Each structure stands twice: as C-alpha cells, then as structure tokens.
Amino acid sequence: MPEAITGLVLAGGQARRMGGGDKGLRPFRGRALVEHAIDRLRAQVDQLIISANQNLETYRALGYPVISDADSVEAFAGPLAGLHAGLSACSTPLLVTVPCDSPLLPLDLVAKLAEGLAANGADLAVARSASGLQPVFSLCRRRLLDHLTDYLDSGGRKMDRWYDALRVVAVDFPDEAAFVNINTLAELEALQR
C-alpha cells in the first residue's frame, strides 16, 4: 500500500512582482488562483493544507487547515519556510508542495513524483520540465524536517541549495504549460486569454 501523502499549497508570498497583495486570492477565470491549485491537487493526496501569511480567515473559508510559516521561521521567508511549516504540521510520511500561482498543475503530479521517489530510494522528488527543474513542485519525506530546520537556522533560503545536500530525483513531465506560474498582472491577463 502506498504511503499517505499530505498536499501543501504554498500561498505565503508577498506578490511583489504583482504589485503586492495576496497572489493566491487574485481572480483567475472567475475564482481565486489558489482554488485552481486546490482543485487539481486535492484528488491526488490524502490530506491538504494551505500555507499562508495573510488573509488567513479567507483561506480557512476554503475548508482546509491553514498554517503560517511565521509560526516556525520568519514571515515571508520564501517557499522553504512554507515547506518547513508544512512538514511541522504534516501527519503523513510524505508531503507534496505546489505553488498557489500554477493553476494548470499536472493531474498526475503526485503519482509520478511518488513513483520516482520510491524507485530511487530518494529523500525528495522534484518535477522537471523542458525548461528545467520546477523546485516548488516536490514530494519529500517528513523525516527531513530536522535537516531543513538546521538549514534554515543557518540562514539558508534557497531550495536548490538545500536539495544539494539530499538524495534528490528529478521526474520528467512533458507538458511545459502545466508548470506555468503567474508572477505579474500581465502574465495573469495573458493566461486568462
């Protein structure tokens, strides 16, 4: 029987390139960006949680537990801080992360990452598309929490640098469009069309 997996939607950024505010709550095709990510992820996991640092009640209204990385590191410290909060809150052996600004994420993301993780005896599986690694789309073992804590305590914030110290497998995904992420209002408008 496969190991249970918690899904973590990362929505804790400041959306600086989008003029500030809360990127996950920006409207896209009639609903908030984060809702699209949740819809595509929830059928792939056993549990789902959201990492956010603002508008917590709005996120809670979506029906899933909401955690803040400010509870464990410092607010807005990047995706690794969200991952740390997720691993701290996670009750399953595995945690998969996706960003709130990728509304077209693969529907087979978790299955393929889990297959790669198991087949390679890896600590972490990360998606790779034609443009390279997609580090925020990853599946990691909960037991990495202490290792990540040490990395963050030492001032580390870069995902790929933390990955360098782990047994990581890259899992190929052919659909580049599935990993489109929205960083600016212009990108949001272009994808709407």
Would you give an account of this structure?
The chain has helices at 33-42, 56-60, 79-89, 109-120, 145-153, 159-163, 185-192, and strands at 5-11, 27-28, 31-32, 47-52, 66-67, 94-99, 124-129, 132-141, 168-172. The chain is an alpha/beta fold. The chain has one domain (5-192): Spore Coat Polysaccharide Biosynthesis Protein SpsA, Chain A, CATH 3.90.550.10. It has a 7-stranded mixed beta sheet, sandwiched between helices. Strand 4, helix 2 and strand 5 form a beta-alpha-beta unit. Helix 3 (79-89) runs antiparallel to helix 5 (145-153). The relative contact order is 0.18. The model has no long low-confidence stretch (mean pLDDT 88).
Any chance you could write out the topology, listing elements then pairs?
Elements: E1 5-11, E2 27-28, E3 31-32, H1 33-42, E4 47-52, H2 56-60, E5 66-67, H3 79-89, E6 94-99, H4 109-120, E7 124-129, E8 132-141, H5 145-153, H6 159-163, E9 168-172, H7 185-192
Parallel strand pairs: 1-4, 1-6, 4-5, 7-9
Antiparallel strand pairs: 2-3, 6-8, 7-8
Helix pairs in contact: 3-5
What are the defining features of this structure?
seven-stranded mixed sheet, Spore Coat Polysaccharide Biosynthesis Protein SpsA, Chain A, globular, 24% strand, 193 residues
Précis, in short:
The chain is α/β, with parallel strands linked by helices. It contains seven helices and nine strands.
